[in-house]
């Protein structure tokens, strides 16, 4: 475990906009202004239901983007990969706030030589989960009884989701309540057990921030993380104090409770496990036959690093009359060791195939067997390609 | 005579398994050859595809075999340490571990997939393997991916 601090921005403007103490924003701004970073990727808010990942070198854009968007379940990995595809960006240092699944995607891309992890400063955010924007709209209408378009702010505090209306009126509902009614967090988030991004350079959140404190809890995990914190501190962008025993204990307790909940969800969502072999086959055939081969799941997949010559595409022939297409079987097989369960594929699927769940079923059993978790450590090569990659390293 | 014409023209009423075997050029294909030279009985269920090395057997080929309706797919190659391309069959072994889990999760019986190392002189082992796989597959029945399969 790294050193833990409570940190907050000295700039009043940042603190006002920020989710917690504004440490993340202040540290990124400090790094930009003092030349530690060339660019930053932030999620720019359009409204409660939409945020756009933006690469910027302008501190004011970073400040504008402070705050957490819980209903923007975007994964930042592919934006970072796109950034480095541009020749003129090679070798540039960038920093970005990352949920655990963003960090894991970026680490998987580093393993596939798409980017150099040493160029990237990962400011991890603890994550209890994200909501699907359409699902939140529905919940606003059905559960909160308000016009979804009238919501100007959403906030998650102590297990409750608060929605603020234009009039300033605030409505609340327990997330547990929402989830009982089929709303709330996305399936992938419900079963995610990486709540604290220990694979990033810093882990920031509000777990461990005690009542009455306006701060961000920050755990320093690597040298890069330390550099970010030191730079912000020495140049007066933030103030810190060491986290108390009590603080550490609270954070650990909440995390453990969340992980336990996730494991319970996995058991619940795993109902298909009870099915016999034939029923399992029927389930896969019936759900995957809806596929129209649009390729959207591959495009957004944060761990896929194949170009247009990808096997799942080139070995697929539209004229085949297979019960499950080559596209689907190849993707399922290739992701068995690498699926991080982020749920992007399901979010974009135009025919609503429960892809998170299907991929997790294949991946979970393989990853458990191999005792391997993708996206946690750059030096652990993907087991499926291990033989090839070792050879690559020798050359 | 009419019965003979009928039999010649119509597909066999009874299902015969189709076993797809990938054999590497240097060992297991020669092993299959040896089985023939030694006049060993090998069930006619087998369809051999020769590849230069078991390392050439992309798991996607195996999956395609299943989707095309193969009742079983065999992956064969030189014994570990004997691969003519140094270490390629280590990759084969690694990929097989993934295929095994995949096929099981998808809902196909484990009897339908097999990995076997067979040297050029092991004709008997090749013939026995085909016999055994054919018998096992007969027990579990036709592949659900056979074209006639609906829902
Ligand atoms: C979806 C989500 C769920 C979270 N759940 C928890 C939790 O359960 N427990 C906990 O302790 N902390 C959680 N956090 C972290 C917490 O909300 C704060 O982000 C963190 O404490 C840092 O606070 P800050 O004031 O220093 O950040 P700020 O200065 O407000 O900066 C936040 C940064 O996060 C970026 N951001 C906003 N939305 C997203 C998004 N959807 N994806 C990626 N980046 C985004 C913004 O661009 C901004 O740069 C969550 C964050 C998010 C985004
Ligand atoms: S040459 Fe036979 S397995 Fe490689």
Structure overview:
The complex is a heterodimer of chains A (395) and B (151). Chain A is an alpha/beta fold and 395 residues long. Chain A has three domains: 3-126 and 191-262, Aspartate Aminotransferase, domain 2 (3-Layer(aba) Sandwich); 131-184, Roll (Nuclear Transport Factor 2, Chain: A), CATH 3.10.450.750; 270-393. Chain A is 41% helix and 17% strand. Chain A is built from 17 helices and eleven strands. In chain A, strands 3-2-4-5-9-10-1-11 form an eight-stranded mixed β-sheet, sandwiched between helices. In chain A, helix 2 packs across helix 9 and helix 4 packs parallel to helix 5. In chain B, helix 2 crosses helix 5 (123-140). Chain B has five helices and four strands; from the N terminus they run H-E-H-E-H-E-H-E-H. Chain B has helices spanning 2-9, 28-37, 59-67, 88-106, 123-140, and strands at 19-24, 46-51, 72-77, 113-117. Chain B has one domain (17-137): 3-Layer(aba) Sandwich (Rossmann fold). The mean pLDDT of chain B is 92. Chain B has a four-stranded parallel β-sheet with strand order 2-1-3-4, with helices on both faces. Chain B starts with a helix and ends in an 11-residue tail after the last helix. Chain B has 151 residues and is of the alpha/beta class. Chain B is globular, with a radius of gyration of 16 Å. The complex binds flavin-adenine dinucleotide and FE2/S2 (inorganic) cluster. Flavin-adenine dinucleotide binds at residues 18-25, 42-43, 65-70, 72, 97, 99, 125-128, 130, 204-207, 216 of chain A.
Strand order of the largest sheet of chain A: 3-2-4-5-9-10-1-11
Radius of gyration of chain B: 16 Å
What percent of residues of chain A are in strands?
15-25%
This entry's quaternary arrangement is: heterodimer
